[in-house]
Write a structure and sequence with these properties.
This protein has two helices and no strands. The protein is mainly α and about 60 residues long. The protein has a domain of about 35 residues. Helix 1 packs antiparallel against helix 2. The chain is rod-shaped. About 0% of the residues are buried.
């Protein structure tokens, strides 16, 4: 595997983009899980989706 260098970018710019992509995918998964929980009336799935969303700030390095 080779590294692709983008002029003017540092390795931290690449890491930041990857982290933002992972956060966006996690939020999308939360949305799907939340919508399904509402559709089928599952309280446990709703609680799991809220717990999943609560974990999101920790994934971005934000401390509560």
């Amino acid at each position: 595997m080779t590294d692709v260098e983008i002029p003017g970018w540092t390795p931290w710019d690449t890491v930041r983009r990857v982290v933002l992509l992972v956060v966006a995918l996690n939020l999308a998964y939360f949305g799907v899980e939340f919508a399904v929980a509402l559709k089928i009336g599952s309280v446990s799935l709703f609680a799991d989706s809220v717990d999943f969303l609560e974990e999101e700030p920790r994934a971005r390095g934000v401390r509560s």
